[in-house]
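SEQUENCE-TO-STRUCTURE ENTRY
===========================
Question of interest: how does this chain fold, as expressed in backbone structure tokens?
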Amino acid sequence: MAYKSLLTVLTDVQLAEAPLNQLVAMAGSQDAHAEALCLGVDRTQTGYYYAGASAMVLQETLTRATAEADEILAYANGLLGKSGVRWSAESGVAQIADLGRHVAHRARFSDLVIMPRPYGKNRGSEVEPVVEAALFEGHAPVLVLPDDHPPLTRPRTILAAWNESVEALNAIRRALPFLRAADLVHVVVIDPPTHGPERSDPGGLLSQMLARHGINCEIDVLSKTMTRVSDVLNRHATDIEADMMVMGAYGHSRFREAILGGATRNMLETSAVPVFMAH
């Protein structure tokens, strides 16, 4: 099993370098196809202008979004064209309210979506919904990269966050190609429940499953000594010198299929290593 179809969705040329370099590195190591979807985003909400202005504003924003898409596509073509891997790139324009539909459609047919961190300085409002759409509507695993992180092809030490949830198990299953190639996987359990199927052996069944795949793993049971679970995980990732973190993506919404929940958002804001997520 390997990732054979890799996708990145780019909406800002300033954030394109890290995901494109990661895309190329993984395509080379996995003998995969690298695909870049370059989107110009129309951030206006049509209908909120007086009648005479709507058409003018719409034309202006579409022109600007088309120019942004062309700029991102030219950058992607230049980087991918000299990479030596199999690749494709295309551009398009989407309204921000309809962005998720375009991303989800492409993510459904990808083994892994590679994205820049959605939070931080100089981020547009569209980066977060792109990640959400890939995860929750496209049902694809997403690898989120910290700023300026070097390309990662074979993480040697991986932290796998485990809380007995369906999301955590799905993320671990989707990350098996990375886990198999790692030297060591730390299954991290924070404050295991005193009542439940794993109360006497936290992470035991999971480590057994991973061992049957030839994965070398250890179980780290930690106390929640900090306010946020993400802080405990980040500190432990530093302590064990983890190259990647694997965790379930949690969300909630009454109006959409899902939006990122607070724990997931905190992790993406603060993690110093790439975070592999699946819902």
